[in-house]
Amino acid sequence: MVDIPRPHGAMGAPNPAGPPSARWSGIFAPAGTPAKIVPSHGRDVRPANIGIHCAMSDSPYTIDRASNSRRKAVEEWLWGLDLVSPEVRDRIVTAWVSAWSSSPYEDLAEMPFQAGPPFYPLAEHVNEVTRAGVDLARRAAADWGVSIDWDTMVSILVLHDVDKPLLYRRDAGEDGQGHSRLFHELPHGVVGAMLLKDLGFPHRVVSTVATHATNAPFHGNTVEAHVLHYADLFAADHAMRVMGKTPIYLRRG
Ligand SMILES: [Fe+2]
Ligand SMILES: [Fe+2]
């Protein structure tokens, strides 16, 4: 029997699991450190060179709440925003706009699902994961009686790869293998978790995004982590097929 704890409850409620593990404490800002919030007022806030930006700034991204054209584009792109509260919807959009504004990509459609060629759009992957994950979560609720907090579930699905625009390049990148410099400083998932923590997302969202990658040292033992894992692999294998690569489930060794 699979042990699937129920969600903690409403968005923003105290987390009975307590504060983030000390194991991760070194990668987040010290308690009490305010998030760096810099309104762009329509200006292009992207760094000219992400490598220099990383080396000279105290943060690899900038919180962008003011790029109205980008907010509109993100709202039109993301599937599932109608499933969350207005406050969470606004926070999700800010997270994606911030990642976009801090990346070298002019257009959402240019963001890659993986490092280097061949290309598959991250924008497609994110919506595929969210749709599959919502289907799985509804199945879990109907068949297993699992309680789903949709603000939490949808936030995790929509935002699990929010840091990829900061880490992956469509070309050879800064290391010749399709990666940014930041990729070699912090793992995929952790960068996104830092951004989400800065934006005030609850610990369940932050910790699940931080540990969702297949090569993470462990995954969360929650229904959200369970759903995300299989929705992500399901959608990733579709991307593999489209790119002419072997799907993960068919690989040996
Ligand atoms: Fe991922
Ligand atoms: Fe993914």
How many strands? 0
| Biggest beta sheet summary | none
Order of helices and strands: HHHHHHHHHH
Based on helices, strands and strand pairing, what is the structural class?
Answer: mainly alpha
Tally of discrete structural domains = 1
CATH domain class name: Mainly Alpha
Number of helices: 10
Which regions are unreliable across 5 or more consecutive residues at pLDDT < 50?
1-55
* Helicity range: 40-55%
Strand content: under 5%
Ligands bound, unique: fe (ii) ion
Q: What Rg is obtained from the alpha carbons, in whole angstroms?
A: 17 Å
Here the CATH topology equals Hypothetical protein af1432
Termini gap: 27 Å
Instruction: Please state the average pLDDT score.
Output: 84
Shape: globular
Key words describing this protein structure:
binds fe (ii) ion, mainly alpha, HD domain-containing protein, 44% helix, disordered N terminus, Hypothetical protein af1432, 253 residues
Protein described:
By secondary structure, the protein is mainly alpha-helical. The protein has a single domain (40-250), classed as Hypothetical protein af1432, CATH 1.10.3210. It is 44% helix and 0% strand. It has ten helices and no strands. The protein has helices at 22-25, 50-56, 68-77, 86-101, 122-144, 150-159, 164-167, 190-198, 203-210, 223-242. α5 (122-144) packs antiparallel against α6 and α6 (150-159) runs parallel beside α10. The radius of gyration is 17 Å and the shape is globular. Residues 1-55 have low confidence and may be disordered. One fe (ii) ion binds next to loops. This is HD domain-containing protein. It comes from Caldovatus sediminis. Residues 1-24 are annotated as: Disordered.
